[in-house]
Structures are given as C-alpha cells and as structure tokens.
Amino acid sequence: MQAHRGSSGQSGENAARVTRSRLSVDVSGERVLKGEPVGSGFAIGPAFIAGEAPAIEPGSRLSHLSREEELSRFHEAVERSIAQLRKLQHRIARLPEESQVEIGPLLEVYQRMLGPSRLQKGVLSRLEEGLTAEAAVQEATEELAGLMVATPDENGLTGEDAAAAERRAGEFREIGRRLIRNLGREPFLSLAAMPDGAILVAETLRPADAAMIDPARVVAVVLEDGGTTGHTAIMLRALGVPAVLAVAGVLDHMHDGVTLVVDGYAGTVTVDPSARTLRQARKQVAAYVQERQQLGRMRRLASRMASGEKIVLQANLELPAELPLIAQSGAAGIGLLRTEFLFINAETLPDEAAQYDIYAAIVSTMGADTTTIRVLDWGGEKQAEALARAGIAGRDVVNPALGLRGIRLLLEHPELLETQFSAILRAAAKGPVRVLLPMVTVASEIIAAREIYDRVARRLKRKGIDIGESLPPLGIMIETPAAALTAGVLAQYADFLAIGSNDLTMYLLAADRASSEVAALYNPLHPAVLRMIGDIVMAGLMERCPVSLCGEIASDTALTPLLIGLGCRSFSMSASAVPRVKQVIRSLDYDACRQLARRVLAETDAEGIHKQLKRFRTV
Ligand code: PEP
Ligand code: MG
C-alpha cells in the first residue's frame, strides 16, 4: 500500500509528536534543523538566502500636495494594485487546482478591500484631513487591523477565533503595504538573482511575496518565523511548495549555495546532507511528484473503495468565497455550512432578507448537490458584536463552552431561530437543502426546534411563499457526550446525525480545543473518542438514520481507514482535503479497515492506536 501522507495538522501525526529539539548534528557533519511543517512534500536544492525587503515608511504625515493630487496618487496606486492582483489571478489559473482553491479567495478578498470598503472610506476621510496618501493608507489599515484583533472582553480571543482575527488583521496590513509600495513604486521582494531550483531561505516572507513565488523555480521555502495557520503558510501549501516555518536561528546555520533537504511533512531542514540522506531524499521527491499528478485527476474519479464500497465526500464551508473551491474539489455537496460568518463581523443582526440572499445563492450554485445549513452555533469562546449589542450574547459566564451555546442560545431567543429557519426554508426552493442543529444534548431540544421549524413553514405557506413540497430534513450535530451516549434516542427525533468530532473530543476529554496548554490532551486518537464515534455510527444504523462526520479528523488521511472501519460512510471536510482523502479511499479494502478498527478498539491508549495506524499504512 502506498504511504499516505497528508497536509500539516494531521492528528494521526500529531498524536505521537513529542517536543522537538531545534538542531541535531550527525557524525557525517549534516545538521538537521526543525521547525513547523507546512506539509507540501520534499525538496533538495542549494540555499538562496534572501535579505529582508527594506520596510517602507509612509514618511511625513501631512502632505505638501493638494488633496486632489493625493487623491489621484491614491487612485493610481489602487489601480496598480488591482492590476497586480489580477495578474496574480491569471497566474494561479495555471497552478494545480488545489493551489487555486487556496489562493483564489484571498486574492478576491484583497480586490474587494480595494473597492468601496471600510478601508477606502478610512483613507478618503484622512486625505480630506490633508494627510499624504501613504500616511492615510498606513493609518486606515492599522485602524482596521487593530479592530480585528481587539478583544470584546478581558478574556480575549482564543484558539481558532484569535488565529482568524490575526489573519484578517494581516490581510488589512498586507493590502496596506501593497498600496504604500505602489505609491512609492517600490518593488516587492525580488527573486531575480535566485537561481532556478534553489531553496529560498529568509527570515520572513509576506503573503504577497509568497504569492509571487513561481513553484517551477523555487523548490522549497525555509523561514525563520511564521506559523502554520498564517496566510504565508496557506499560500505556500497552496502553491505546493514544500516549506518549513519557524526554524529558529535558521540564518545562522547556513550560507548561500549550501545543499539543503527540506521535508515539508516532518518540518525538518537538513543542511549539508550525507550521501545516504541525499539518496533517501531523492526517492521521496520522486514519490511526491507522482502523488501530485495523481491528485489532480481525483476530481473526476468516483469516491469508491478498492473493494467497491461507496464513500460520500462533502465539503465544509465557512465563507461564501470558498464556494468555487467546492466545485473544483469534486465534493458531493456541502456537509456543513457554518452560518456564523453572517454574524461574526456584523454590526447588526442579519435580517431574513440578508440571510436568504446568501443561502439562496449558495444553494443555487450547488445545483443538484445538497447544501447542509447549520443554524447559528454561537456561544462558547465565540463572540459577536451584533449579538452582544442585541442583548443576546456576551454575558460573563465562568465556563462559556458549557453555557448558552448553539441550540440552547437559539431556543432561549427563538426569534433568531425563526428568522434563520424562514430564510433557509425559502432558499430550499432553489435546490436540495438539509438543516442542522448544533450542540444538542437532549431530545426536548430537537422537539422544540422542530415545533418552531414546522410553525415557520406553515407561516410561509400561508403567505403563499414557495418552499417546495416536503420540508428539508432536520438533523443534529452529535458533539456532546450526552448526545453521543443517547444517539439512538435522538435519532428517533432527528432526520440525520452529523458527528462534530472537534467538540466531541473537547467535551469528552475535558480539554479545550482552542487551548495550547492542553493541546497534548486534546487527542482524537484517545480510545474514548474512537469508541464513541463507533457507537454513534452503530446507533444511527440501528435507527436507519444517516450519519456523517464533519469534524477536522475527516480530512486526516491517516485516520480515513480507521473511520471507515468504525462504520463511517460519509464525511465532510475542507474542500482542499477532498482529493487527497478520495485517493486514500480508492486504495482501501473494507475488510482490512474493519480489522484495523477491531485492533484499534482493543488498544488502551492513543500511543498504541497511533502505532496501529502507522503499521496499517506501511503494510
Ligand atoms: C465540530 O465540533 O466538530 C464541528 C464540526 O463544529 P464546529 O467545528 O463548527 O464547532
Ligand atoms: Mg462543533
């Protein structure tokens, strides 16, 4: 069986990851540096050390030019920036589909920021005050970036929310830097002197510079800073350029031209490799090139196991901008549409019309493929200004993850649920839809939600609004231990079950999914989590209630055979993971997966389970 290696963040890999030393030296003289893997394969080549591009200062604040002149300089810079981004967009059209999927939406976000936006408004008002265009851009982008990371309470943002806010702030800063460079006509990072086939080594790399990298010329990237969820990492992963980030002191350990071996999966950089390491690395590079060629062909191939069983692969969607990616991924519909994006940065609650427009557009785009829309899952560590302002959320609670979250909040404020149901039911006239309730713990929550659902449907029908013949199926997330242990009972009230392994792992192991302090304890390979997933699937089967799995582990190819062996036949994951997971599925034999699941369930700890998975992959 082929070795299955996936993108970074795989829990199968992480489960056995131990604290790593940053440098080791071998008897041959080769040095191995360690950092954070970006998970895009292997490369061998000479180091090219790129000096940091000089920072551009916006200069003096007040302009000696007229307002009209500064305004026209700003408009020119905007036009130049848009032209550059369009050029980038053309360039990415030639990249592998997987890469387009990652970079495309970001380029669109940048272009939108350059159009009529809060950023433009901020710049124009500063130009009115007599500032230079550079200072106006600098201040306006900093203000917006600051707003993004400003925390609504003293507890601050944590985990995924903090990372998302940082990314968004980074986007504002990034577009600001592009505008300032274009105002001064300064070039971006120039790689003109870099020989083809070299490995770029730098202290830092901005996403815009990363996007300019030609994967045909730059075989790998090694950076001193950066994080695996930042935009630079996303770009590099999307471009398929193997990379290792956050390699402490990397520039002290090498000189221009020294041979490097980069392992973007393990996060290692071998400086001056021995003949043996080089031989091994060449084999890995060849296997990786072959793997990429195969992934490109996956979209058109059936999601069927080697032994014939069909496995449903759907996509998760967090932002409408991701929609084109889903079509490109070959996913069979949307298994989880998280509607939180409608509320997260909103100043007021989105009304029915605003919600309908978005749901209807998504459902129409998906055509005959089903869209599973989850109603608002708010609470826990998530904060929303609009909800706080409406007096709905944001109260101080000791344990927010155990408070008024998901369906609990919606049933406490049924007007929220009614508006959302109404918008979804109307959108369902455009194509197949399913509706999903988050954070359910007890059947009475499903009964209460269904009463509201039916009432809203009756009201729409009375008004003569077309909502189709039968109501879309109403399903529930199984993401609390209570729901998991009573899945058989809940399945009698729900039309389908969706296992939310992210929260299920958190609540089952009492380890916050967003806390780095308990990251080692938050392990989906814990036998309790895996047994629970197996039991949920079985309960669904007994009640003839369809079950899918939509947590992060669905995209972890190391876990695919095990999850199938536990009975999962339907998964929903990030669009970019679909081809890779499909490729693994097509290589698997169902009986072998069942046997693997049996062996895993006999293990008593995560380490033993990790070894079983590893053994399965290498057999
Ligand atoms: C989950 O908990 O696994 C899930 C899919 O929901 P979310 O990540 O949105 O909480
Ligand atoms: Mg969840």
> Which CATH architecture of the domain at 2-52 and 191-276?
3-Layer(bba) Sandwich
According to DSSP, the number of beta strands is: 17
Bound molecules: phosphoenolpyruvate, magnesium ion
Main CATH class of the domain at 2-52 and 191-276: Alpha Beta
Decide which structural class fits the backbone. Answer: alpha/beta
How large a portion of the residues is in β-strands, by DSSP E? 5-15%
Sheet with the most strands: spatial strand order: 1-2-9-8-4-5-6-7-3
Q: What is the helix content?
A: 40-55%
Quaternary organisation of the protein chains: single chain
Main sheet makeup:
9 strands, mixed
CATH superfamily of the domain at 2-52 and 191-276: Phosphohistidine domain
Tally of contiguous helical segments: 24
Net shape:
globular
CATH fold-type name of the domain at 2-52 and 191-276: Glucose Oxidase, domain 1
Summarize it.
The chain has 619 residues and is α/β, with parallel strands linked by helices. It has 24 helices and 17 strands. It has a nine-stranded mixed beta sheet. An eight-stranded parallel beta sheet has the order 16-15-14-13-12-11-10-17.
Describe the structure.
With 619 residues, the protein is of the alpha/beta class. Among the domains are: 137 residues, 3-Layer(bba) Sandwich (Glucose Oxidase, domain 1); 118 residues, Enzyme I, Chain A, domain 2; 128 residues, Phosphoenolpyruvate-binding domains (TIM Barrel, Alpha-Beta Barrel). The chain is 46% helix and 12% strand. It has 24 helices and 17 strands. The strands form two sheets. Strands 1-2-9-8-4-5-6-7-3 form a nine-stranded mixed sheet. An eight-stranded parallel sheet has the order 16-15-14-13-12-11-10-17. A hairpin with a 4-residue loop joins strand 8 and strand 9. Helix 4 packs across helix 5. The relative contact order is 0.11. The N terminus is likely disordered. The structure holds phosphoenolpyruvate and magnesium ion. Magnesium ion binds next to helix 19.
